[in-house]
Amino acid sequence: MFQQVTLLLGLMVLGTQVWSIRYEFIDISKNLNYFVMSVEFAVFQYNEDNKDEYAYKLLRVRQSQRKRFSWMFLMDLEMGRTICKKHEEDIENCPLQEGQGEKKVRCTFLVDAIPMVTKFTLLNSTCIDK
Fold first, then answer.
1. pLDDT of residue 17
2. Which residue from 73, 63, 49, 51 is spatially nearest to 106, judged by alpha carbons?
């Protein structure tokens, strides 16, 4: 009886450890191809969902992580408000607003990628003004 209880407890502890390892996020290179594409998607989606008429562009990637055994990316981004409208071409080369119009945001995005079909889904986003 004692051996069965010990075995059961051991399996429960092992199962918990495997589960927590499987679902944790790990740091990755900011230059990883699918991460870069996920960042571009997140910034695009932010601009689409934001009510501001001006586009925001990426200023800095503060954190880059991937969920272990998946293509789910967690990113902490800093973005700035540009002088360009949302749907203008080449927002990356658009200057930032200065003075009263200057605005920066810091956002955390969770993006799920399906690389084989180049599909991205924004699972969660949280942004704060800086």
1. 43
2. 63
**Token representation of residue 95:** 């200057």
Rg (the chain; Cα; Å): 20
* pLDDT tens per residue across span 102-117: 999 999 999 999 988 9
Domains with residue ranges and CATH for the chain: 25-129 (3.10.450.10)
